[in-house]
Amino acid sequence: MRNPTLHDVARAAGVSYSTADRVLNRRGGVAEKSVLRVQRAIDELGYQRDIHAANLSRRRSYVFRFYLPQGDHSFFTVLRQVVEAQAAQRLAERMQIQIHDVPPLDADALAAELSRIETGDCDCVGIIGSDSGALTAAVERLQAMRIPVVTLVSDAAVEARMLYVGIDNVAAGRTAGRLLRLAHGRGPGRVLPILGALASRDHRDRLKGAHEVLTEPGRHLHLLPPIEVQDRSDILRQKLAAMLAADPQITGIYSIGAGNRALIAMLRDMPTPRPFVVLHELTAPTRAALEADLIDAVIDQNPDEEITLALQAMKAIADELPATPPEVNPTIYLRDNLPR
Prior knowledge:
Number of helices: 13
Largest sheet: 7 strands, mixed
Structural class: alpha/beta
Distance between the termini: 50 Å
Order of helices and strands: HHHHEHEHEHEEHEHEEHEHEHEHE
Strand content: 15-25%
């Protein structure tokens, strides 16, 4: 049997094709009783709209905005390059992708940028943000304007955003904890977590995951209080140097956030044996550090896949189709399995 068409819907509802089309595309100007008849006919016939054909017929185009942290952070630089490459590739699909700069780990500054968006400016927004009341309010405002928000890398404004696209950060933290535990065997150890900010859900979730594994009963590993460095090299150098001087028995370091260049530079000057080091994101500096045996493992969240899945989800949302949270699987890189 053939699939029902909009002509079938119009016939079953007792209205013209143009009226059924107006109801389907929410263009207004249709009496409420006719709207109800068309909606009833759609349900009874099981009519499913061909979004691709509809978009072609009305030359539908999309405008998507990404608000990305700026600054000298290798991972965010890679992420920006991926978005820029996708922007060039997707023009043929009538998809305009815009990039806006925001300060890293500053939820209020991101909220202020989002507050400048007006109705009709874009179809969907992708953000990387930290939890704050101002950001939640800004996302709620956009949702009320029918501009959905997708969070990337770190989930935020959970009560208001439409979808999160990224890795399971608790699982990523557990993975890091497992690597550190394997490195220590059954012996004792002292592990120092370094994070950007506890306000960032991804940093908080990764710390939680690592804590779950490293503090299981029967183990002799001690998880030290984390140091917050705001992803700033100067703060990292100062706080890490103070911790290493105060506690020379540190045997493991888990760098949870971005901005690892200063850490790698300090590891280069450490006497051997150095602590076992796990960090996140395969970038040029972290790859070189793996190759030079300055660090031991990198957990990468595949930014190419993440942005591709985010754009697929944003398009589905703009087309009012179901958009389920996509699964982004991180990769563990050691010196032995680095990609070309």
